[in-house]
Amino acid sequence: MSTESALPTTRLSQIAGSLISTLSISPPSDIPADDIGRAIDILQSHGDRIYYYNCSDLEAQEHIVKYQLPVVLSRYNIGLIIIDSVTANYRAEFDRPHSSQASQMATRSKDLRRLAGTLKDLAIEHNVAVVAVNQVTDTFKRASQSSQEEDLLTLDYQGKWFDGLVDEFGESLKRPSLGLVWTNLITTRVMFVRDRMQTRMKVVFSPYAKPASLVYAISTKAGVHAIVEPIDSAKMGKETTDLEGVDFSDIDVEEIWSEPPNV
């Protein structure tokens, strides 16, 4: 489900083509040939295995989630639901200059609780994972935040702990949208952060994994892959693809790839 743009079919085809090429030319030795063949067949027909909805406004989004999505899940063997992004329609619907801010926040919180409850029920009933992509918003320090004592009592200070912006990234001018209400509704939060010249994926909280992070990169050939060392100015523009020696144990990834996996 997309609320902001059309499905990037060109990029999907590019990733599928790269995987087909890799599996055909240098298949992993520890995977049976029959499994490799089935994987290639699936990749060649990847477009037939994706169901896409365009949610142009909040009313369409609620109708799709409540009525159309359960029907699709009952008819097909679907393992993953992606909403990209869950934030856009709520911003467009509730950021109105001529309405009471308190009234908008109350209504938005109610709608978010209903959405999260519906998605959790579907996830449990159909054994499907749900990924809801959030957005970020700019933050500004207030004049009253001049002392540590005042900071400790403010939501801006305390919010950094459930946003995942402490300990690793220092002061940040970006915060996840939808606030504390959405934080208390989701099961796991994974944050993607640009930290100086690095891009980092961080598990903020999860019942299945302890908080941890790794530096990652995206390239045309390798897709999304972890990198060994932080990127500095001398390495800008170069792809770091050596994963030997990387310890993924903190984020519960069991295998160490000799080459970066295509995602």
General description of the model:
The two termini are 19 Å apart. Residues 230-263 have low confidence and may be disordered. Strand 7 (212-219) and strand 8 form a beta hairpin. The strands form 3 sheets. The protein has a 4-stranded antiparallel β-sheet, with no helix packed on it. Helix content is 38%, strand content 16%. Among the domains are: 135-186, no CATH class; 188-263, no CATH class. Helix 1 (9-25) runs antiparallel to helix 2 and helix 3 runs parallel beside helix 5. It has 8 helices and 8 strands; from the N terminus they run αααβααββααβαββββ. It is of the alpha+beta class. The chain has helices spanning 9-25, 33-44, 58-75, 88-94, 101-126, 148-152, 155-163, 179-183; strands spanning 80-84, 129-133, 136-138, 174-176, 189-195, 198-205, 212-219, 223-226.
Please give the largest β-sheet: 4 strands, antiparallel
Strand content: 15-25%
Radius of gyration: 21 Å
Oligomer: single chain
Number of distinct beta strands: 8
Strand order of the largest sheet: 5-6-7-8
Contiguous uncertain segments of 5+ residues:
230-263
- Number of distinct helices: 8
Mean pLDDT: 77
Distance between the termini: 19 Å
- The share of residues in helices is 25-40%
Specify the structural class. Answer: alpha+beta
Secondary-structure element order, as H and E? HHHEHHEEHHEHEEEE
Structural shape: globular
